[in-house]
Amino acid sequence: MKLSLLLIVAALMIMSAIIAGVLKRTSGLRNVPTRAKPLMTKREQAMYWRLKETFPAAIVLAQVAFPAIITSAFKHRNRYDRKIADFVVCDPSMRVLVVIELDDASHKGREAQDAARTSLLSAAGYKVLRFANVPDQDELKAQVEASLLPVASPAATNARKPVSVA
């Protein structure tokens, strides 16, 4: 009898501790100070509008989470689950044509991290272009169209033809 009572008391204490922990975590979320922030910086807005005017038939997405465009075995997802692509340019069928990164001064000293991000996207089959500044329309069009050209190789005879985004 004493053993069963002791087990019941121990179980109640454990359940109480678990409930207290859950309540503490959820009540803390309500008190997190938050504030609105702009979706894009002024430079990102300029790049967005430059992409839209240069490729009017394309779909231009901004601030795209990597898990929306790449996937892997679950155990590897923590390598990219909090990363964001600045811009993703798609054709009208929503097929990704190119991923564009706008590198500003905050990227200085982060070249290795940027290379790792590019490597992840490239491994998934995406073309990645990086710009230090917002390019003019001619430069942007030339670089995007060049990135869509198939790589010259014996297998290139089966490569897909570039899709016009103009």
Quick overview:
43% of the residues lie in helices and 15% in strands. The protein has helices at 2-30, 42-54, 66-69, 111-123, 137-148, and strands at residues 59-65, 84-90, 96-102, 128-131.
Report on this model:
The chain has 2 domains: 1-34; 42-150, Trna Endonuclease, Chain: A, domain 1 (3-Layer(aba) Sandwich), CATH 3.40.1350. 43% of the residues lie in helices and 15% in strands. The protein has helices at residues 2-30, 42-54, 66-69, 111-123, 137-148; strands at 59-65, 84-90, 96-102, 128-131. Strands 1-2-3-4 form a 4-stranded mixed beta sheet.
**What proportion of the residues form beta strands (DSSP E)?**
15-25%
Strand order of the largest sheet: 1-2-3-4
Specify the overall morphology: elongated
The figure for the number of domains is 2
The Rg value, from CA coordinates, equals 24 Å
From the 3D coordinates, which CATH architecture of the largest domain would you assign? 3-Layer(aba) Sandwich
Major sheet summary line: 4 strands, mixed
The portion of residues assigned to helices is 40-55%
The CATH class of the largest domain = Alpha Beta
Return the string of H and E elements.
HHEHEEHEH
List the helices and strands and how they pair.
Layout: H1 2-30, H2 42-54, E1 59-65, H3 66-69, E2 84-90, E3 96-102, H4 111-123, E4 128-131, H5 137-148
Which key terms come to mind for this protein?
single chain, 166 residues, alpha+beta, Trna Endonuclease, Chain: A, domain 1, 2 domains, four-stranded mixed sheet, elongated
